[in-house]
Amino acid sequence: MDDFLKKWEQGFVIWKNPFNPKQQRKILFDKTKLVVFWSKYPIGYLKNIKKISFDHYILYTINYYPKLEPKLPDLQKRIDVFKEISRRIGKERVIWRFDPIVLIKNIISPDDIVERFETIARELSGFTKRVIISFMTPYKKVLYRFKKIKIEYTQPTVDEVYYIAERLGKISKKFGIEIQSCSERFNALGELEAFGIKKGACIDKNYIMHVFSENNELVNEVSRLKKDRGQRSLCLCVESVDIGEYNTCKFDCVYCYAI
Question: What's the distance, CA 131 to chain centroid?
């Protein structure tokens, strides 16, 4: 966060295409209307929160895979940071991400996923309005890392997906948290909507316009945005620029596609 705030004070950042570093673009912050942060442990954000005056919200990932996330702080510490951020900026501006959903042979079963989701949902009830879920995409480089540490990833069957979705839908309702999927192949045609899980977006036009309704300039700008054509076909996010960089996260989660 310190590095980001320095860039913000500088007034611009150079965006680089992660797949073609020669393709670059200067992003001017005086033209930026909203910032969306993604994080698994935004302690740096919390420490600098008084310095942040621009409109923003946070997508905060909390799941529980000790064997796959060996460098993350313990679960309770991450939950406590989530709660404190919610108290400081409001529960509508910190969105819980429970993703990816990962099944591992003899280690993580569908029932384990449900149990872990309920444990976290109980803690975050009243501290967030929304949770976003997705099942792990088995990229080759990710499967290679699984194999390297001798953990066997299990591709969920449709029945297992429905079993998990039905229970996550009920748990979310129980704790007053709206649930949706993100760029989810198992919900491409709305298959999970029967369980209360709608197709959703992380950069959600309607949500932004609701949460920041008092900022007329932002609302007007966002209302004109269209689906981001640079994202995956199932992604429903509106147009934005991702200034994050691959291979910069220190947590080294085994399932991560960005390392």
Answer: 9
d(CA 135, CA 165): 10
Say if residue 196's pLDDT is above 80. yes
223 Cβ contact list (under 8 Å, min separation 6): 205, 209
**Domain range enclosing 51:** 38-223
Between 75-89 and 110-124, two packed helices, what is the crossing angle to 10 degrees? 40
CA 248 to CA 88: how far, in whole Å? Answer: 27
Q: Which residue, chain included where needed, has tokens 């996550």?
A: 168
DSSP 8-state symbol, 132: E
d(CA 148, CA 252): 14
In a domain, 138, yes or no: yes
Identify which of 62, 186, 189 has the alpha carbon closest to the alpha carbon of residue 127. Answer: 62
Total domain count for the chain? Answer: 1
C-alpha 256/C-alpha 189 separation (Å) is 26
CATH of residue 143: 3.80.30
| DSSP characters over 27-92 | EEGGG---EEEEES--HHHHHTGGG--S-EEEEEE----TTT-TTSPPHHHHHHHHHHHHHHH-GG
- Which tens digit of pLDDT belongs to each residue from 131-177? 999 999 999 999 999 999 999 999 999 999 999 999 999 999 999 99
